[in-house]
Known about the structure:
Mean pLDDT: 90
Number of domains: 1
CATH superfamily: monomeric porin ompg
Distance between the termini: 18 Å
Low-confidence stretches: 1-18, 29-36
Radius of gyration: 21 Å
Order of helices and strands: HEEHEEEEEEEEEEHEEEEEEHE
Amino acid sequence: MKYILSLTIILFVATIDVRSQGCVAIRSSGNTCSMGNPGASKGWQLNFNNRYFKSYKHFVGTIEQEEREEKGTNVINHSYSLDITATRNLNTRWSIALTVPVLSNTRSSLYEHGGANRHSTQSFGLGDLRITAFRWLLDPAKHHKGNIQAGLGLKLPTGAYDYEDYFYKADGTTVLGPVDQSIQLGDGGTGFIAELDAFYNFNYKFGVYGNFYYLVNPREQNGVSTARGGTPNTTAIKYFTSTMSVPDQYMARGGANFMTARFNFSGGIRIEAIPSSDLVGGDRGFRRPGIVTSAEPVITYKAKKIDIYLAVPVALQRNRTQSYSDKLRSADTGTKVQGDAAFADYAINAGFTVRF
């Protein structure tokens, strides 16, 4: 049983946050995989997960726009999030988790501030709360080597999705307007969470795991202007990018782990994405769809009541895909149109879990 608990902890701590590495705006509204230990009939877990990344490399599709860095015209995002998650084990199969995210972001650019000098905008505050119920599909008392956990939940629009800061104009004056979508604290939509988490241990040292998470956001647009305090141009209005979209997001992971008495090591592939089309609702509104594929090593130190961990997903491929508006413009002009987005090289997840 202790090895099942160890693997569960690895799955949990490595997947607290599903925030993409860059301007592809997957916020801290992701899953809380494997919340609750299989077979635990009662008790609480409290997790504090810290995540940081710096996005600065621009991609169109999978092609890096190296000239942006060389000319100093690239956008640079610094993103930090603290997810505080409280989990209650209701019985041996059911658990419920509440996650409260606190976000702090800074974005610097030229094009948002008149084009001559680099300036920054910031956002700080509470993100979108999420509450999820989990159930082990197989009886933990009879299935010690492996199990599957299903989760269903809600993402609530508690984070500000119209956060404002000052933008510089070419004449040196400033104007107050909504910050870029990538550093907004929320998306303005009530979302529905579905996830599956699974593991199998071959023996007391080696095992494999897999996770899948999807956030359905039925709301199409949140009405927040993308003009940064100005007036939307006719192109933005025509192709529905004058206001921000409320996109779906998903994550998939898979890998293997090695367990020792105190340390657990895992490694695998992590895929995070904003699709260009949603499962429910329309696709209008401004979004930067994209997919990040990363190699994800995780190390966890396990004590009696506390676990300390570090995970560093390193990007293997970054792909800024075509948005709905890109496709409309391509059809109208007969030439493929595809916007860009800035991505990070890696992210840092670090934190600890306390059991009561």
